[in-house]
């Protein structure tokens, strides 16, 4: 007689490393739109630390807070951890501290964008983020097929969206017209959850790194349970 078993639910913790609740809300929206029905996903942000992560000092401070959040889960660890910041900082440290699947939204987004389009552009928020993202395109080996643009808007305004749609629209249109991008990767946690709306308006695929990180985490959890 054959019997069937139900796999335990996938438990995933998504960490927005800044303390901006609007960014956390954007991240949660992206998670809710992409998670499997049998995944249990929590979205959190630190209680202390930078409101937005722009400088190297911001990253160091936020990293300490992220590691503290991860450490507090170790009595009942999650199956996977996602860092919802496009810098992908603290990914290796969280993976080492927890021993669990750990994914950054930048890597997940770049992998997805490179699968669906031969060339793509990454549209981020502040200009100071561009060089760091360029370095990450080299790390993840998509530098030959991608370009990076900044909408020149603050992370706070990006999360509000309505106040900055004109600047964001201009950057996206330039990526399509001038970069000949065949897909757009949204390069900030503050832009999470806008992909479907923007894809409808601009007529090209938009990739959301948070959504892709959730899908990738779910897949890797299954693989880890099979070994």
Automatic annotation (TrEMBL):
<dbReference type="InterPro" id="IPR015942">
    <property type="entry name" value="Asp/Glu/hydantoin_racemase"/>
</dbReference>
<comment type="similarity">
    <text>Belongs to the HyuE racemase family.</text>
</comment>
<dbReference type="Pfam" id="PF01177">
    <property type="entry name" value="Asp_Glu_race"/>
</dbReference>
<dbReference type="GO" id="GO:0047661">
    <property type="term" value="F:amino-acid racemase activity"/>
</dbReference>
<dbReference type="InterPro" id="IPR053714">
    <property type="entry name" value="Iso_Racemase_Enz_sf"/>
</dbReference>
<protein>
    <recommendedName>
        <fullName>Asp/Glu/hydantoin racemase</fullName>
    </recommendedName>
</protein>
<dbReference type="InterPro" id="IPR052186">
    <property type="entry name" value="Hydantoin_racemase-like"/>
</dbReference>
């Amino acid at each position: 007689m054959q019997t069937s078993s139900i796999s335990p639910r996938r438990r995933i913790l998504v960490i927005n490393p800044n303390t901006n609740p609007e960014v956390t809300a954007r991240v949660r929206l992206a998670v809710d739109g992409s998670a499997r029905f049998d995944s249990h996903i929590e979205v959190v942000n630190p209680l202390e630390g930078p409101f937005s992560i722009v400088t190297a000092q911001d990253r160091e401070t936020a990293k300490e807070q992220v590691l503290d959040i991860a450490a507090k889960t170790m009595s009942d660890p999650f199956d996977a951890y996602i860092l919802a910041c496009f810098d992908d900082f603290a990914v290796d440290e969280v993976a080492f501290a927890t021993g669990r699947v750990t994914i950054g939204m930048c890597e997940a987004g770049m992998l997805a964008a490179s699968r669906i389009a031969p060339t793509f552009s990454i549209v981020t928020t502040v200009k100071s983020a561009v060089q760091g993202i360029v370095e990450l395109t080299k790390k993840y080996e998509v530098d030959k097929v991608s370009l990076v643009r900044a909408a020149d808007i603050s992370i706070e305004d990006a999360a509000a969206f309505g106040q900055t749609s004109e600047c964001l629209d201009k950057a996206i249109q330039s990526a399509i017209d001038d970069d000949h991008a065949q897909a757009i990767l949204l390069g900030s946690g503050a832009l999470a959850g806008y992909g479907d709306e923007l894809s409808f308006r601009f007529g090209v695929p938009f990739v959301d790194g948070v959504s892709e990180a959730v899908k990738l985490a779910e897949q890797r959890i299954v693989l880890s349970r099979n070994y």
